[in-house]
Design a protein that fits this description.
The complex is a heterodimer. Chain A has 14 helices and 13 strands. By secondary structure, chain A is of the alpha/beta class. In chain A, α1 packs across α7 and α4 runs parallel beside α5. Classes of the chains: A alpha/beta, B alpha/beta.
């Protein structure tokens, strides 16, 4: 696939965090002729900044996808969503790529297919299984398997990228931490000593670009990460500082513990139990459900003498596992086969992300912005106490 | 029977999202109360017309706008995509109808002027759907400013932003050729209209946006007013911003959360506390039992009632075409003098290319 002419690339899920930056980087960098594909007209709001040939196609609609992909060399699948969306959009998208004569299908998978706490020595050759604690990881494992099956039936080349914690402007990892920080709910497990397998978004898209062009990588998967080995405390540090917080002031919480109510709820909401319940009349279902959930936490009765307190956060299962990760996933295969080298350092990635936070109105107090030649103006603050 | 007591007969031109979500339920309420009657519908999409025809089964469906003069309608509500506003408004006025045109009233000042000239020569009402002027909160802020309750205004900051969710159907809405502008020409019309209504014309404007060959999703304005203060407007279609208007004066501040039609917050310099105020009608006859002020939806009804009353000659029109033209002129000025927003996550190479595209 090494070619001199400009690649024509359809980006499916082009309005999302990674999808929209992919469009931005490929288009502004003059790297490819980009065709964003989104599921509804309203999803074009961000992409409409460019004069591009945007298409509307639902990820489950093979006919619409086929029309959207026609004339493209590469399809990048960057659709995010629940387990149904993760797995269910693959067959329509791959078959549509086949119909449209696309040469390569690149799937944005995740390092989470190896779990949130991968064992030392884990790499792309490690066996995957779908009995992990998080439904997301299992869905991504099933997604990779589905794509390999589709590849056996079709002729469109398949490449899988497995980035770690992808951060950057518009990243959930960053905004959720900042919002928790501002509301006094930010926390670390294990004092933040666990490894954060960070991937600055531009590094991932650089790997994506290399995966579009590099020949002889059909059916291969690649772990993609930043160069630096970063702990979760080090990952959070620059963002906490930017908002004037001391990282040591974060809640240090114990790892996630499954309570008996959580276990009960997991059983009750599981597919077999829900199927069984559906056989009962609605009224009986409601009574049964109420009985099962009777022990769930009920809101505490407040007293007029009580001084309101900020609740102490409780670690989620996902963050608990991530914060205890002890292994930096290698990008060696990507380096060797794709020629991948991260193009943005972790520190620079943080700096750009913090500058973006200021751009969209978060109350950043320390930003080394003024990037691209313009300082940020000072916003008006209410001064009721002055 | 006196015709001025009869329900005003309405034709709804454009049966898309704004008509389905807002006009249809509002018109139903006012039809039930005998204020108006929907007699005709028009939209080039048969599905859209059929959907609203189920709501107004007595209304006839026009095949084209040539049928306007025979529809029996006295008032046309133009709720089609903005690129059709000028043409459809002028045709309705020429057919002898009054017009309530959704915002933005037109894509250009020249179009807006042509609409106003047609209304004047036809002696017909031309109203513009700048709904926020009907909110009790924005009227209260106007009163607060007019009475100097904040002291001298020192600065202001108006922010509106969210992930775009409006159920648009046509991709033309996001094409430069189809819509002429992005968020400034959309939400910006409301923001600038309120600002002009409260303070009049600014004497200095700096505008920047992030369009790179297309239409902007983000923009920012800095404005200086002859009264001696300045402030900032920040709008986004792609990210949630603090959706609030904040005006700082020497004696205190007022804050309004966007679309909270009946609430304002007020703080006073030196005070530990702030007022989180719900607004009530000031009714001298029933001081012990005040009625809550209109919320968003009731403000929408108030807008329609005012236009209907103006058509009947019972009330002055609250927001005219001339009023609508003011914000449009400011927007046109901004686009003409646009500069490129700093986008700190772009590499230098990308930023350079982006700047070239913005200048196109």
């Amino acid at each position: 696939m090494r070619c001199e002419y400009m690649l024509r690339v359809a980006v499916l899920g082009a309005n999302g965090f990674i999808g929209s930056r992919t469009v931005e980087m490929l288009h502004l960098g003059g790297l490819a002729e980009v065709r964003p594909v989104v599921r509804s007209v309203a999803r074009l709001a961000r992409l409409a900044r460019f004069d591009l040939d945007c298409r509307i196609a639902d990820g489950f609609d093979q006919t619409a996808l086929s029309a959207a992909f026609r004339g493209c060399d590469v399809v990048v699948h960057a659709i995010a969503g629940d387990s149904r969306t993760i797995v269910g959009t693959l067959a329509p998208a791959y078959r549509a790529a086949q119909e449209a004569g696309v040469q390569r299908f690149i799937y944005l998978s995740t390092a989470s297919v190896h779990g949130q706490m991968p064992a030392p020595g884990t790499d792309e050759r490690s066996l995957l299984h779908d009995r992990q604690p998080l439904p997301y990881s299992n869905a991504k494992v099933r997604a990779e398997r589905t794509l390999h099956r589709l590849r056996c039936q079709g002729s469109v080349e398949l490449v899988l990228l497995r980035p770690g914690i992808v951060f950057g402007p518009r990243s959930f990892w960053v905004t959720s931490f900042v919002e928790a920080l501002l509301s006094g709910q930010a926390y670390v497990v294990n004092d933040g000593r666990g490894i954060c397998n960070s991937t600055y978004v531009d590094n991932l898209i650089h790997a994506l670009y290399l995966a579009m062009k590099t020949p002889g990588i059909d059916r291969e998967a690649f772990l993609v990460g930043d160069k630096e080995r970063v702990t979760w405390a080090e990952f959070y540090q620059p963002f906490a500082e930017a908002f004037g917080y001391d990282l040591s002031a974060l809640h240090s919480v114990p790892p996630y513990m499954l309570t008996w109510q959580d276990r009960l709820e997991a059983i009750c909401t599981s597919h077999p139990v829900q199927t069984l319940l559906s056989l009962f009349p609605r009224k009986a279902r409601r009574i049964l459900w109420a009985a099962l959930m009777a022990g769930k936490d009920s809101p505490p009765v407040s007293s007029p003498w009580e001084v309101p307190e900020v609740p102490v956060p409780r670690a989620t299962l996902e963050m608990s596992l991530l914060h205890q990760c002890g292994y930096k996933l290698p990008s060696d295969k990507a380096k060797k086969r794709l020629g991948y080298e991260p193009i943005v350092s972790f520190a620079e990635g943080c700096r750009r992300t913090i500058a973006w936070l200021a751009f969209v109105g978060y109350p950043v107090v320390r930003s080394s912005s003024g990037l691209n030649g313009r300082p940020f103006p000072t916003a008006v603050q209410e001064t009721a106490h002055d | 029977m006196r015709t001025d007591l009869q329900p005003v007969k309405i034709v709804l031109v454009g049966c898309g999202a704004v008509s389905t979500l807002y006009y249809a339920p509002a018109l139903q309420v006012l039809q039930r109360s005998g204020t108006l009657q929907v007699v005709a519908l028009f939209d080039p999409s048969p599905e859209s017309v059929t959907r609203l025809n189920r709501v107004f089964p007595q209304a006839i469906c026009l095949q084209n706008l040539d049928q306007l003069s025979h529809s029996g309608a006295e008032l046309a509500i133009i709720a089609s995509p903005p690129r059709y506003h000028a043409e459809q408004t002028i045709r309705a006025l020429e057919a002898g109808l009054a017009v309530l045109c959704e915002k933005p009233m037109a894509l250009t000042v020249a179009e807006g002027r042509a609409m106003i000239a047609t209304a004047e020569s036809a002696s017909r009402v031309l109203a513009v759907g700048l709904l926020r002027r009907f909110f009790p909160a924005t009227r209260t802020i106007r009163d607060i400013l007019a009475h100097g309750l904040l002291g001298d205004v020192m600065a202001f900051s108006f922010c509106e932003g969210s992930d775009f969710r409006w159920p648009v159907v046509s991709p033309d809405f996001f094409r430069k050729g189809g819509s002429h502008g992005g968020i400034l020409l959309d939400i910006g019309v409301h923001v600038l209209d309120l600002m002009l209504w409260w303070w009049g014309q600014p004497d200095e404007i700096v505008y920047e946006d992030d369009a790179m060959g297309g239409i902007e999703a983000n923009c920012r304005l800095w404005l200086r007013f002859p009264q001696g203060f300045q402030g900032e407007v920040r709008l986004s279609r792609e990210w949630s911003l603090p959706n609030q208007y904040l005006i700082q004066g020497t004696r205190g501040w007022v804050r309004w959360e966007v679309n909270e039609a009946d609430k304002v917050q007020i703080g006073f310099a030196g005070s530990r506390y702030r007022l989180n105020a719900e607004l009530y009608e000031d009714d001298d006859k029933r001081p012990a039992f005040p009625r809550p002020a209109a919320n968003f939806h009731r403000s929408f009804l108030d807008q329609l009632r005012n236009v209907v009353a103006a058509v009947r000659g019972h009330e002055p029109l609250f927001v005219s075409g001339v009023d609508g033209l003011q914000s449009l002129a400011l927007i046109e000025h901004c686009y003409r003098h646009r500069t490129f927003m700093s986008m700190p996550w772009l590499s230098d190479r990308e930023y350079q290319r982006a700047g070239q595209l913005n200048a196109l």
